[in-house]
Amino acid sequence: VPVNRASKGGDTATDRYRRLIEESGIGLFQTNVDGSIDWLNAAAARTLGYESPQEFLETIRDIHQIYVDPSRRDDLLALLERDGAVTNFEYEAKRRDGGSRWISITARALYEEGHLEGFEGTFLDVTDKKLLEVATQSISSDLEPAAAVAHFAEVLRRAVPFTQLSLVVIEGDRYRRVVSLSGRGDIDPLPTGEWVPLEGNSVEMVVRSGVPAVVDDTADARWPFDLVLHEAGVRSYAIFPLVDQEGVFATFNLGRAEKGGFDADVLSLVGILISAATQAVKNILLFEQQREAVTRLEELNRMKHEFLAGVAHDLRNPVAVIGGAVQLLEDSWDVMPDEKKMEVVQTIRRSVTSLETSLQRDLDLVLLEQGELGYDIRPFELPTVLREVVDSWASSATTRTFDLQVDPGLPAALGDPHRQGQIIHNLLSNAVKFSPKGSAVKIEATAGSDEIVVSVVNEGSIESGDHDRLFQRMSRLSSNKPGTGLGLYICRLMVEAQGGRIWLDREATEGVRFSYTVPLSNKGGE
Amino acid sequence: VVIADDAEDIRYLLRLVVESHEGYEVVGEAGDGREAVDLVASHQPELILLDVSMPVMDGLEAIPLIREASRETKILMVSGLDASYVEAAARELGANGYLEKGISPKELIREISALCP
Question: By Cβ atoms counted within 10 A, which residue in A245, A385, A438, B44 is the most buried?
Answer without folding.
Answer: A385
